[in-house]
């Protein structure tokens, strides 16, 4: 084995530059011998106790058995670090391969090779991250102005990121690279509202990936077809004395009970759906035989394969959680939220993560009609980390019996907290939109 660890530590001693170790991301685990690791620890401890100064080479040799100081090392820190990291990666991979861990991993997943490859990739990524060489940190405001202007010009040309308008005025635009968390109590329309948004995006050209971990693919497609047909106002329905133009009846499609007339119209609509959706929507449903892997690694693979611009995860808490090394309560969910946010940013997609809101007491009017009430920020359920990682926190409360709903912003990167939109909510025929003039008095619908 080479002695680049010894060369690097000797250079630190000669230059009295202990901060170089932190500057280049070097830790104890990167050194290949006990002598080098012990010398590293002694140098760091000495510097902590002596105002950042390095010990003399004589002190290190005296205190650390087996360490041999090499004088006048002239190679740069960058070169020595790159060599040290490479040696560390070789050693860690060799240990992984030769000491049984690789074989054990293979044996444990012999009947499930996709899982084996995911775990193998995760292990190799860990080695890579631990031995990666950092030549530069962040973006320099003064030195990187060319970098900034290049990105500015890409955005000006619409090449770097994309925006998609929301159907609801209180939300504004969705921007690629951001994670949007939609939450509400159980059965209050979170999935319907989010699906309306991603269908709108697909109609306007986005490629959408839907991970539906509570609904089978057929149910999701029913909702999509009803939503798209509602935009074409293919049917009309009198609800509570109000004539509404909407789409096909979702209940009739689910049961396969469309009338002969509507059956013909529906089949024609399906045949011409490409004329309505400029982009595409790919659905992975809970009943799919090949949808067993719900990890972030699989999500990234699906994004690449479908060339997705938009991802809908319904719900977040049915994902396969990342392992949390801190072992704190709820840490796996929090870790997954953090990694999901990073993945969405890295892949430059619009990401929707749906979760529940804590159940709270309901308030009803004198005539027994439940009052609509958006959940608060503190009500985000499953993991509070979702609230921290969300670019925008979107609260939802709907009541199909009243035909009404509320959609609002409880956290927004560009403001808007507390803004909400009152909507007409008749998902049975795909009518999910803001009230138009003359509709705001509609209430107490009974389907």
Bin the helical content: 40-55%
Radius of gyration: 29 Å
Number of separate strands: 13
What is the straight-line distance between the termini? 76 Å
Main sheet attributes: strand count, strand direction, barrel closure = 9 strands, mixed
Q: Which structural class fits the helix and strand makeup?
A: alpha/beta
Overall description:
The chain has helices at residues 4-15, 19-23, 34-49, 57-63, 77-98, 101-108, 113-130, 145-156, 190-203, 217-231, 250-255, 260-271, 296-306, 331-347, 385-389, and strands spanning 163-165, 173-175, 179-184, 207-212, 235-239, 242-246, 280-285, 310-314, 350-356, 392-399, 404-412, 420-426, 431-434. The protein has 447 residues and is of the alpha/beta class. The chain has two domains: 4-130, DNAb Helicase, Chain A, CATH 1.10.860; 164-434, 3-Layer(aba) Sandwich (Rossmann fold), CATH 3.40.50. The strands form three sheets. It has a nine-stranded mixed beta sheet, sandwiched between helices. The longest helix has 22 residues, at 77-98. Mean pLDDT is 85; it is low at 443-447.
């Amino acid at each position: 084995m080479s002695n680049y660890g010894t060369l690097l530590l000797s250079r630190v001693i000669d230059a009295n530059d202990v901060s170089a170790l932190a500057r280049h991301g070097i830790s104890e685990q990167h050194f290949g011998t006990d002598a080098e690791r012990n010398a590293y620890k002694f140098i760091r401890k000495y510097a902590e106790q002596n105002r950042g100064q390095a010990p003399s080479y004589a002190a290190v040799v005296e205190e650390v058995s087996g360490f041999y100081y090499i004088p006048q090392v002239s190679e740069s820190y960058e070169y020595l670090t790159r060599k040290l990291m490479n040696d560390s990666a070789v050693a860690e991979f060799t240990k992984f391969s030769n000491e049984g861990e690789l074989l054990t991993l293979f044996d444990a997943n012999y009947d499930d090779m996709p899982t084996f490859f995911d775990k193998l990739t995760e292990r190799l990524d860990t080695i890579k991250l631990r031995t990666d060489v950092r030549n530069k940190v962040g973006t320099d405001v003064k030195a990187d102005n060319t970098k900034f202007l290049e990105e500015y010009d890409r955005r000006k040309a619409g090449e770097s990121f994309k925006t998609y308008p929301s159907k609801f005025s209180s939300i504004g635009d969705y921007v690629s690279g951001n994670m949007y968390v939609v939450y509400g109590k159980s059965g209050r329309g979170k999935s319907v509202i989010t699906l309306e948004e991603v269908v709108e995006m697909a109609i306007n050209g986005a490629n959408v990936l839907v991970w539906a971990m509570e609904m089978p693919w057929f149910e999701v497609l029913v909702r999509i077809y009803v939503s798209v047909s509602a935009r074409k106002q293919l049917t009309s329905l009198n609800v509570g004395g109000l004539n509404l133009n909407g789409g096909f009846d979702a209940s009739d499609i689910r049961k396969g009970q469309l009338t002969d007339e509507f059956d013909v119209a529906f089949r024609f609509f399906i045949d011409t759906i490409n004329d309505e959706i400029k982009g595409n929507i790919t659905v992975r449903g809970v009943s799919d035989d090949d949808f067993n892997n719900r990890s972030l690694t699989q999500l990234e693979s699906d994004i690449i394969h479908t060339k997705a611009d938009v991802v809908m995860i319904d719900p977040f808490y049915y994902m396969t959680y990342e392992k949390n090394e801190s072992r704190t309560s709820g840490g796996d969910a929090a870790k997954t939220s953090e990694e999901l946010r990073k993945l969405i940013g890295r892949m430059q997609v619009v990401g929707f993560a749906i979760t529940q809101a804590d159940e709270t007491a309901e308030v009803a009017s004198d005539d027994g009609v439940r009052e609509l009430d958006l959940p608060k920020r503190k009500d985000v359920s499953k993991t509070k980390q979702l609230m921290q990682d969300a670019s925008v926190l979107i609260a939802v409360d709907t009541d199909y019996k009243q035909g009404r709903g509320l959609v609002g912003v409880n956290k927004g990167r560009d403001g808007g907290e507390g803004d909400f939109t009152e909507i007409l909510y008749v998902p049975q025929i795909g009518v999910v939109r803001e009230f138009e003039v003359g509709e705001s008095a509609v209430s107490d619908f009974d389907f």
